[in-house]
Structure formats: structure tokens, C-alpha cells
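Exam revision sheet. Question 4 asks you to relate a sequence to its structure. Input first:
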Amino acid sequence: KAIYTVLESINGSSASQKRSGITSIAEILKQRKLPDSVLPSVIDTLQACVNGNNHKISLQALRCLKQLISRTFGHAAIKGFLPSIAETVGERWGDMKDEVRMTALDTSLDIARLSTSLRFDFFLRKCNDSKAKVRQASLSFLGQLAEDFGVSVGDKIQRKCVVECCKMMEDRNPKVRTESIETLAVLYGVVGESIWRTTVLGRAELSAAMVDVLKDRFSTVTVAPPPSPAEANEMKTERTQKKTKKLKVRPRKGLRARNMNQTASSTVSRTPKQPPVTSRFAKTPSYSQPATIRPVSIGSAKSLVEEITKLETILCTKDTDWK
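Answer key, C-alpha cells:
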């Protein structure tokens, strides 16, 4: 009830009421986690404040969203709202106020730590924005992603991000062009000479002058050393275990064990098969009647999120994890 009272005060027309309400939510988050029932209302209210015209309220709401994400880290309820929060936060990458823009980038990095599918999607959606500040912010975001999580040129999405970053060297804004060269230098420090492959920078069709500029910049970068053979084997084993666990593949038997089984089965005397014995008292399998399915009317994205949250709370039990 106290949280709903605070939300009503935030929805008021006074800016001071909104700021005091956001402060109250931040104080509540410091003490405990928000219950799942009020989480949609709190997120909708904070998103509305972020999209407002008052930059002070937007900054305060962004900080509160950042605190909410870090507070509910690993909680299943918050993951369903991450795409919507990411869209709202990404709109502030081109804000006129530097403090708002930097807070939005930090919040986006927190979201990237929670959701692997949204990491490089941030950059791909913002690198072609009409605002130069958004394009510049997307490049700095990509560089930070490379430093925090690494980049693999073998992955299709990540390879596309490197190619798009290279194309931004010919951007009409000089700050974006400079930022793209610095971001490529960060990527080179992570992946090394493999960045020159025909499937990566070779697809960008750079001119000779651009190639010389990149080579001069890369010459000042220290490339991260490759993993040792022991670390590489350990990483390979972990990937194999994860893949086996995901696909539930049973390990295949060796050739020797298979031959032994075939030899043992061939030595066993075969007896003619007897017809199965049937009994009139044998139980036939009974199946329960299917439950009546009632359609749910979805009128907006907010109602869709609420219905999914209800289903998640119903299905989630102590014995079953429905993440």
C-alpha cells in the first residue's frame, strides 16, 4: 500500500512531488526488494519519468531504474521487462545533458550484464540513428562491451557489429569518425590480427588511406595474449559440457564396448517369442479431461507484460524453475 501511495504521488502534476516520490522508491529499494505484484507499476512509472521533458526528473528516474536492475539481479521477474527498459534507456543516449547521457549508458551496461541477447543488439539498433550523439554513444558502448565481455569474430552478430563500426569511419560527423577509430582499436586489442579477415574488415571495403590510418592506430595497441593451452582446453571442455547439457546428448559408447555387446548377444540362445498374455482385468490407461482454455484479451504491451507475469507467478513453484 505504501508503494502504491508513492506511485500516485509521482503521477501527480507537480515536479517536486515526482522527485520526492522517486526518492522514496530509491529508499525502499535500499532496504528490500520490491514484490512482483508492484514491479510492473513501478517500472511503468519510472519509464514515464525517464521520457519526460524535465532532465532532472529523467536523471533521477534513470538512477532509480539502475538501482532497481542491480537490486533485482538474477531475479526472474525483472527479465521480462528488460527489453522495454532497454528501449526507454536507449532513447536517452542522445540527450543534451552529458550527465543524463552517461547515466543512460551505465544503465544499458547493467542491462547487458543481465541479458546476453540485448548486449550487441543495443549497438546494432543505435549505430544508424539520425542523431550524431546517439551514434557516438553507441560506439563507446560497443568498446565498453568488448572490454567487459570480449568479442568473437566467429559469432555472426558480433562480427556484424565490427563491420558496422568500421563503416562508421566514413560518418558525416567528425566526432563519430574519431570514435569509430578508437573503438576499432579497442576491438583490435581483444581479437588481434583476426580483425583483418575477409569476413570482418574485409567486408567493409576500406580505401587504402583508411587502412593506413587503422594500421597506424593499431600499432600503438597492445593485443591481449591468447589463452594458454590449459585454459583453452578448460574453456573447450566447459563449452562441450554446456552444449551436451543443453541438448541432453548421451555420450556414445566406444567401439570396443559395442563389439562386446554384439558378441554377448550373439552367444545367447534365442527362444521363440511367445504371444503376449492379455487379461480382461488389465488396466487401460486413463487420461484426465483437458482443462477449458479461456482466451485472454491483450490490448497493449503493458497488459501483455502483466499477463505473462501472472502466468510466471502461477507456474513458478519450489520444485520447478520456470525461468
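Marking note for examiners. Residues 248-255, 263-291 have pLDDT under 50 and may be disordered.
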